[in-house]
Amino acid sequence: MRSSRAIANSVLVFITFIWGATFTLTKAALVVMPVFPYLALRFLLATIAVSQFFVFGPKYRKNLRNGRLWLIGVVLGALLFLGYALQTLGLQTIAPAVSAFLTGLSVIIVPIMSIYFLHQKSHTRTWLAALMAIIGLGLLNGGIHRAYFPVGTFYTLACAVFWALQIVAVDKWALGYDSVALTGIELLVVTLLSFLISLFTGPGGFHNWLSPIIVLAVVVNGLLGTAFAYWAQLHFQRQTSASYVAVIFTMEPVFAAVIAWVALHENLSAMALAGGLLIVSSMLIADASGS
Asked: For the purposes of burial, counting CB atoms within 10 Å of the CB of 213, is it exposed (0-12), middle (13-18) or buried (19 or more)?
């Protein structure tokens, strides 16, 4: 039992590391490819990978015959698309580490939304986490852009809101439905919407699709950061404790900051680092409040 828990924790740490790396890889990929063509390729690969569940699993194909599951999947996919689109748009003007810390604010937003949408009990720790996150946001952004908040900050804050909405929507509507089927539909919706917007913004955006950085970003983010991460989280999270998982997942912005520092030589000021630390701490407190 102890050995299986150690393996599960190790795999979840690896997933979190990959998620941290996706910020730097996406930032680099956006230099040679527009946002929506990049997202279309990333999620196309992830959708193809997850579709193998349906190719080789008759029970998963059977679940796809449920009309309400498709309706829920489309709604969740639209929210997921808005989250990824806004996060990726934000990465055009802010650093990967900042994006990761801001995205992590969804952990604080979820319990606040749950009070109103799911009628869950209000916890003092929820509001303490929110206050810490607001102070952390001010320090994080003030340590980099003292005079103004760049547009990428607002895109990424909106991303955190839509991801929080997606998580709350899963709790409200998706419980009891096949998670593999829902994930497949969600990824398909993100892929189709990304391709659709790419056509309206100029189909020429795909001409660099064989660029080494695009191939690397799409493979790592699509296969490891999306398809594999989903399967591994589903499989291994049940073999460890929720408290361990919460601590592990709050390491994502820390990994993102370290990887950006190593790969892109991006440094955060002492003020920005203090803000990031406050946000990570608020994520831990907010998660505990919802447990």
From this structure: middle
Whole-angstrom CA distances from 135 to 148, 246, 273, 278, 281 are 16, 22, 12, 8, 12
238: left (phi over 0), alpha (psi -120 to 50) or beta: alpha
pLDDT 10s digits, 58-103: 877 888 888 999 999 999 999 999 999 999 999 999 989 889 988 9
User: What burial class does residue 76 get, using C-beta atoms within 10 Å of its C-beta: 0-12 exposed, 13-18 middle, 19+ buried?
Assistant: buried
List, in sequence order, the alpha helices (H) in 170-269. Answer: 179-201, 212-218, 229-236, 242-249, 252-264
Rounded to 10 degrees, what is the CA torsion of 178, 181, 186, 191?
170
User: pTM for the whole thing?
Assistant: 0.87
Q: How far apart are CA 153 and CA 26, in angstroms?
A: 16
Q: In whole angstroms, what is the distance from residue 262 CA to residue 252 CA?
A: 15
Higher-confidence residue: 274 or 188?
A: 188
